[in-house]
């Protein structure tokens, strides 16, 4: 172990062994962690996960003590149980629990977990115990009236609106004026806040009210004139952007909680609402799925390359090949032609490509969302996995062609978007689960 890593590890031992109330010690530990290089931090995380563990001998001694205690001697019994509880408590959790109580401590722990999650995504093995301990601690901190819902509107502080603008990752904005167009009578934003960080939401959602499903993001956020007439009696609420502002809170279910809480608030304000749905991107559809299939890298996919291209009628294939040649394309094989076409930034503006690719793309996208799974049996597309696991439903008719023709939308998902529809029946169990876990408080 490197000297600097060893010094930080010794500070962790001191905090866990009983010096957790020492604010100077906690501050020194944080500073030393931050000063470590990326490689040294990874070495420290592995030490936390594999060596800074529950002491087995102490656990076995405590178990023996519990077994030896007489049930008639309640005082001794309770004392031995307390000793066992202390013995099995993770020393990692004791360190992080003390850190969270300090100024800036929660943010530090969130950043640390974000780094651990990022390392795991890059196939770093052995960090699971550390990640699970931090997640367990954060779950406790996201309960018992520590979270509250707040609407962000045009009257909110400039700092808050700027924060949302900078953290909007689904449909990024260039200026604050764009954020202003997303706030109004039928365009809203709600944030879930933690009492330790009340000025910044930990997750926020953007909502559009409409009559019927909105099937294009351009109908939601593109209004150059700014003269869109608000809908007086909307029957549909569209959740078109959900953003987690703290990477360290990923996977803790706050998005589910936010959807339920916002749904309740919207129903109170607009009793005419009958449908709650999303207008969601399909990240990974082109670069990590369809393009790979067309290249022949489809070992783990439901459909083979031949099955995918055979869904395009022969005459349509010939038209696509001919049009691609007119535009300077060189490929002759239909799979290679499709790669050339869908890699063009302006293919969606071509009437030939639009006519012949619309049904084909929506069919393939529906298979991707509804049938493709990863090695754990979960939906391959993470957005689909989130909404479908929450009880939303999706059909072939919910796949929307040319719904996001921005450069990013075409690159990620060939311009497609999807409506995941939440029925009242699906939202009810979510609400029960939320109320069981989180006795919410609201700001007035």
Series of secondary-structure elements, N-terminal to C-terminal: HHHHHHHHEHHEEHEHEHHHHHHEHEEHE
Number of strands: 9
Low-confidence stretches: 430-444
The description of the largest β-sheet is:
7 strands, mixed
Overall pLDDT metric: 87
Q: How does this model look, in words?
A:
The chain is α+β, with helices and mostly antiparallel strands and 444 residues long. It has 3 domains: 3-53 and 90-141, Butyryl-CoA Dehydrogenase, subunit A, domain 3 (Up-down Bundle); 147-279 and 424-442, Malonyl-CoA decarboxylase, catalytic domain (Aminopeptidase, 3-Layer(aba) Sandwich); 286-418, no CATH class. It is 53% helix and 10% strand. It contains 20 helices and 9 strands. It has helices at residues 3-19, 23-35, 38-50, 56-68, 74-88, 91-100, 105-121, 128-141, 158-167, 176-181, 218-221, 254-269, 286-294, 305-309, 314-326, 334-343, 351-370, 382-389, 407-413, 424-437; strands at 147-152, 187-194, 203-210, 236-244, 275-278, 399-400, 417-418, 421-422, 441-442. It has a 7-stranded mixed beta sheet with strand order 8-5-4-3-2-1-9. A two-stranded antiparallel ribbon has the order 6-7. Strand 4 (236-244), helix 12 and strand 5 (275-278) form a beta-alpha-beta unit. Helix 1 (3-19) crosses helix 3 (38-50) and helix 7 runs antiparallel to helix 8 (128-141). The longest helix has 20 residues, at 351-370. It is globular. The two termini are 52 Å apart. The relative contact order is 0.08. The model is unreliable at 430-444 (pLDDT under 50).
